[in-house]
Specification:
By secondary structure, the protein is mainly beta. It has 1 helix and 7 strands. 7% of the residues lie in helices and 41% in strands. A hairpin with a 6-residue loop joins strand 2 and strand 3.
Length: 97
């Protein structure tokens, strides 16, 4: 993972949240993927283009929210974190910290 983070440091990260709106185009197919946990509940897909823009898709079995972090050293302090979820009324929230 250290090599991966050193290569992508400083790049723009995009996280595609599922769109529940009809008529929206399907997201692009991403070439790389892996489960992040032994229970196969967290599935990460990613890809990059010619300009080194990376796209991430995170599929999670959850109770309404998920957090995902980027870190060059594998620890929480100093990492970039994305938090998203669905409120009980169905509206979606998304935050980057």
């Amino acid at each position: 993972m250290t090599v991966l983070f050193s290569r992508i440091k400083g790049m723009l990260f995009l996280l595609f949240l599922p769109c529940f709106c009809s008529g929206q185009p399907a997201p692009p197919l991403l070439r790389f993927s892996t489960f992040l946990d032994p229970s196969n509940m967290v599935y990460l897909c990613w890809d990059h283009d010619e300009q080194e823009l990376m796209t991430f898709e995170l599929q999670v079995h959850t109770t309404g929210w998920v957090a995902f972090g980027f870190s060059p050293h594998g620890e929480l302090p100093g990492s970039d974190i994305v938090i998203g979820g669905v409120f009980p009324n169905g509206s979606i929230y998304f935050s980057v910290s």
